[in-house]
Amino acid sequence: MRYLLPILLGFIILACTEQTDLKKIESILIGSWTFDSFEFKDQELFHPMSNIISFRRNHELGISGIEHCSWSVESTKQGRFILILNSTNPEFCDTLRLKFSNDNVNQLLKMNIESERVEMNCSKLLLNYDSNRKEIENVITLTKE
To answer: How far apart, in whole angstroms, are the C-alpha atoms of residue 37 and residue 108?
Structure first.
């Protein structure tokens, strides 16, 4: 009985930490990103007129030409983070591995989202790199493989 309390506290702390990490990922995702590359079924798809993707606070995904698209982030048992896209358009209905990286030269936060059939590389728009350096490093560390 005396071991039950520390074990219970450990589970509570672990659950709170996981939620906090999810919130960090979601927080940095919110906003607009530009596609650096978009590959679908081994074919490069890049449309310069519509290369912006916006993650909104209400979990809607804004992308030109795609209606009714939502997003969520979950963590896997292996400690990785996945991005889940739900859409009436099958090309944007997928579960993707999520990874952030740093472009120190151009002072950009980069994001790679990838599944078996699609890979997207994006750069965060309108992010003050210097004042958000700690958050950037946090999400990069969280999504490192």
So the answer is: 15
